[in-house]
Amino acid sequence: xxxxxxxxxxxxxxxxxxxxxxxxxxETMSSLIFNQFGFEMAxxxxxxxxxxxxxxxxxSGHGTAVPTLGGDRFREEEAIVPCDFNIITDKDFKDLxxxxxxxxxxxxxSDSTLSGALIDKRTQQIVLNSLEMEPNPLPPLTRVKSIDFxxxxxxxxxxxxxVEQEKTISGLFNRLFGDDMSLKFNSGALNVFDxxxxxxxxxxxxxxxxxxxxxxxxxxPYGAFTDAVRQVIANHSDSDSASxxxxxxxxxxxxxxxxxxxxxxxxxxxxxxxDPNAKALFLGGFASNx
Length: 290
Hints:
Blueprint: E1 5-9, H1 22-36, E2 44-48, E3 58-60, E4 63-70, E5 73-80, E6 88-89, H2 90-98, E7 107-111, E8 142-144, H3 149-156, H4 166-177, E9 201-204, E10 213-215, E11 222-223, H5 224-239, H6 249-262, E12 270-272, H7 275-279
Parallel strand pairs: 1-2, 1-3, 3-7, 7-9
Antiparallel strand pairs: 4-5, 5-6, 8-10, 9-12, 10-11
Helix pairs in contact: 5-6
């Protein structure tokens, strides 16, 4: 089975939005997929502190919520923030997934705030449980992985006055990024992104209305969700046979959620996909030589 990956970590160096653990997250995931999931080095692209890419990847960085007016109803749509602030929205992810050829399995692991529902809110697999254990105290030196959308627009705008009409926002992104701007700001493409139910698996670091965290508990910065994924995989690798452990997408997210709650993080990772993909092995399973 051929496997390919794009891993992006954005620390936002030399800005007031800087993080410290996102590049470490990429290094963690790179080690995992090379050593335990059978990926070849030539088939993995690693980008650190990168601008927006045409490849929509496993990503660790800031998230944001884009205000949208749909008729008389106000809502916010999820997005992730590259280092050039040319945001990648749910519509960009859906467009990518729609273009996949038949037989291709596509997984997004997003360790960023507001990352839930970057594919489709209707396909959430793990029901929220109000009886879940209360978290322990939050670890020290914790940073929120989010930037307010108004702040992004202010940073990009040459004016000190932010005008809230979406048309003005679209004009700002069009002027700066042209055809590379998000489809969210293309009025001709706003209503064409229903995706087939059998395509796309999203593992988000939190719900659509929650915060993901970057933390430094023992001098080693990391994204809390990415580190929980690492711990889950390590636990299964240590406890199974020499042929390698297996874990489904659903079980991985459930166990990562338990670790985060135990460690004090009030963020609930979510899984968005259809039923068969929920039961599928994470990244197709471990390498056969483990």
